[in-house]
Design goal:
single chain, alpha+beta, globular
């Protein structure tokens, strides 16, 4: 996929701005452009790989998308670039090229086309086959037909007041959706991980999310307006995490523009959003720029985790925590309770791993520039230090954690040296 996105140029100024984690117009524009280009390449790949017997059907669905786009390009763009569409596209391409396994869900392309047609307001006719008694309409919701079998659809088929319709829940204050409906809101069982999406929430669950989301946005606007604006531009959906997930948040590369998160108090949710959006930015950058050529061997110490991490994981973690250190510093300057302690601890963690990142022999020239700019951003926090000796205390605590970790992993101790 990266080879298909080589037309992008990342200037030194934009790379430096992204490396600092600080929001910038050029950085946000680049991330969004990369995501859109990658999505179109994926969709083109699905069309090209459709088997002979389904190619005509796929072409018909694409023709409906094109007709809708002529009437309302923005509506169609939102459907095609909705995060769950990326999960479907990657999964479909994988299945189309796999000799064994479940068949590809090419019918979902029809659901995308119908959703786009409905949102654009055109007159159309289409017939789709619901799966398990449900027909998802991305960015709108889903239909639950009264009878099994193929479903004839027209411009009047979507009625939010119909008991057979379930609406995608819109979070307050913007265009971000709380997605607990789309079957592709997260990768399926073929890609198990430490997180899994929650099932459809109750109205009480939606109301709880509305309250926590509004509170988190209020804090973000108050403490760090630029990051609040960046989140609004880069985050299209939030997927609630189910019980048993081992994380408060996660970002999945296939679902660009989405974050998985558990319900949590507004201060914690605001921090989760800051943290996870950075992963999405770095993933987009890596689609067009090689920052390192290291393998996936887990050998590096990351103070925010107990397990060894590969270089890619260490880079992602340091990048997201650098943004968190900046966020908590601004919150502390505003007077948020406990923010200085959060800032000091997280900054000390980032400072402890930056030397290992910067001296890694498998960094590319762009990777060295990127990590050097991260270090500059970390050092710039000295301009507004926490009161007293909080930063020194935090550094000593992180050093103790490093020594303890090395005692448990003596064979990996050389990879922790600064």
């Amino acid at each position: 996929m990266s080879a298909a996105l080589t037309g992008f140029t990342v200037t030194s100024a934009t790379l430096g701005a992204l490396a600092s984690t600080e929001p910038s117009a050029d950085g946000t524009r680049l991330v969004r452009d990369i995501r859109r280009s990658k999505r179109l390449v994926l969709l083109r790949g699905v069309l090209d790989a459709a088997p002979g017997g389904r190619a005509g059907e796929a072409a018909d669905h694409w023709a409906l998308l094109e007709e809708a786009e002529r009437h309302d390009p923005e509506a169609v763009r939102d459907v095609l670039h909705y995060p769950a569409t990326g999960v479907w596209a990657e999964e479909t391409l994988r299945r189309l090229h796999a000799p064994y396994g479940p068949p590809a869900d090419l019918g979902h392309l029809g659901a995308l086309a119908v959703a786009a047609a409905l949102r654009s307001g055109i007159t159309f006719k289409a017939t789709l086959r619901p799966l398990h008694g449900r027909l998802v309409l991305p960015t709108l919701g889903l239909l639950r037909p009264a009878r099994p079998g193929p479903l004839a659809l027209t411009e009047g088929c979507w009625d939010p007041e119909d008991p057979g319709a379930l609406l995608l829940h819109a979070l307050p204050g913007g265009r971000t959706a709380l997605d607990d409906l789309d079957p592709y809101r997260a990768p399926g069982p073929a890609h198990p991980g430490p997180v899994r999406p929650a099932r459809r929430l109750t109205p009480k669950g939606h109301k709880r999310w509305d309250t926590q989301w509004s509170g988190a946005l209020t804090l973000l606007d108050r403490y760090d307006t630029a990051r609040a604006e960046e989140i609004g531009l880069l985050l299209r959906s939030v997927v609630p995490l189910g019980g048993g997930s081992r994380s408060s948040g996660a970002t999945l590369p296939a679902a660009a523009g989405s974050v998985l998160a558990r319900t949590q108090a507004p201060p914690a949710l605001a921090a989760t959003l800051v943290h996870e959006v950075q992963h999405g930015k770095l993933t987009a950058l890596a689609d067009v720029l090689t920052l390192h050529t290291a393998d996936r061997t887990p050998r590096h110490w990351a103070p925010w985790r107990s397990d060894p991490r590969p270089l890619e994981g260490l880079l992602h973690g340091a990048y997201a925590h650098l943004a968190l250190a900046g966020y908590w510093q601004r919150a502390a300057l505003y007077g948020a309770r406990g923010a200085w302690a959060q800032h000091a601890r997280i900054r000390a963690q980032v400072a402890a791993v930056l030397p290992a990142l910067r001296r890694h022999p498998r960094l590319t020239a762009a990777g060295r520039q990127f990590t050097d700019a991260m270090a500059v951003a970390e050092r710039s926090m000295d301009d507004l230090p926490p009161p007293g000796d909080q930063h020194a205390v935090a550094r000593r605590a992180v050093d103790r954690e490093r020594r303890d970790w090395c005692a448990r992993h003596p064979e990996l101790a050389p990879f922790t040296e600064g």
